[in-house]
Amino acid sequence: MATTRAALAALFTPIYDEFMYEGYAEHAQVSPKVFKQISDSTKDWKWDSLSSLGRWVDANEMASGGYEDPTLGYPKTLTQTKKWKKFQVSFETIDQEEYALMRKVDSAKSMGQGCRDKVEDDHAGTLRDGFTTTGADSQYLFDTDHPANRDATTTYRDNLLTGPLSHDNMELAEAQMSDNLFSLAGIPFVPTGKAQVLVPPQLKGRCSRLFNERADLLPASIDEGAINRFSGMYSWKDWIYLSAKLGGSDTAWYIIYPEMETLVSVWSAKPHYTSWIDEDIEAYNFKGRTLYIQGAVDWRGTFGSSGL
After folding, report:
1. Which of 9, 40, 220, 277 is least surrounded by CB atoms within 10 angstroms?
2. 85, β-bridge pairs
3. How many Å apart are CA 113 and CA 122, to the nearest integer?
4. CA-based nearest residue to 177, from 299, 48, 31, 308
């Protein structure tokens, strides 16, 4: 059976798909560990902030009462957008070079790499822009005066940490987080899992000295009794997409409680790849496509410092 152009393209398409996915998964992504992954096919994904009921109250014998309406927060709408990339191989390339399609493997792999780069950069941007972009409550993601809820507008919560990452500032951060980790109804949030500390690569060494299991002593301490109590208490990760080179900061650091699920990633279509032949211009076409949006639906569970 003769090998036609259509058959040749059909032969290599699964190979290209494999290499595109290989490029996408070449390096472990940080975003899925920080953002809750949601599959949703609607154009506008709406998050209605509605609290659970608050603290119980005392009751009198033979008396009615005890009813409570849920507390309203601030609704958030995320609209998914399409991202894609394409490349072509001309008929003439196949005519003149027997293995041209196979030699386009690097292009297929780089398409997957480019998709991963876009996904990671978009998600990191939610944190990078958290000091300058307002959220549903009209405050920055990291700010000192978040209204406790839509009714308690004179009670404020503060998730803007201060100073560079250090042992002393982590002490201050823990006290601040304890004072501000409350539900909409005012119930203290008691974490059951480890918080995640996210930093640019420039703070990787500092994190190693501060959080690793072998970091038994206070940094720079010569007192054998001066333990470093942060050892093993936090999960930390350096993320290049937070760095100044990629629009972020080399000093900023973040503490995230993923279990509060306020950082979300909404997907209608995960990265996928297709191909077709265009007889009009005589070219093989290869396309990668995805559809998603990411963002913070609430400030709770996220804390950040510019590091200055």
Report:
1. 220
2. 288
3. 14
4. 299
Q: Is the pTM of this model over 0.70?
A: yes
Residue 70 in domain: no
224 within a domain of the structure (yes/no): yes
* Rounded Cα distance, 199 and 254, in Å: 7
How many CB atoms sit inside 10 A of residue 298's CB? 22
Structural contact between residues 232 and 211, judged by C-beta atoms closer than 8 angstroms: yes
In a domain, 51, yes or no: no
For the stretch 198-229, pLDDT in tens is 999 999 999 988 887 665 555 655 555 566 77
Q: How many domains does the chain contain in total?
A: 1
List, in order, residues 6 or more apart from 10 with CB less than 8 Å away: none
Residue 180's nearest CA partner among 153, 146, 212 is 146
Q: How many residues comprise the chain?
A: 308
Q: How many beta carbons lie within 10 A of that of residue 278, not counting itself?
A: 12
Q: Which of 26-30, 86-90, 102-106, 135-139 is the most confident on average?
A: 135-139
DSSP code string of 148-170: SSSS-TT-EE--B--SSS-HHHH
Give the integer Cα–Cα distance in Å for 251 and 216: 24
CB of 159 closer than 8 Å to CB of 299: yes
69 part of a folded domain: no
3-state secondary structure of 32: helix
Tens digit of each residue's pLDDT (9 = 90 or more) over 88-132: 878 777 776 655 665 667 777 888 888 999 999 999 999 999 999
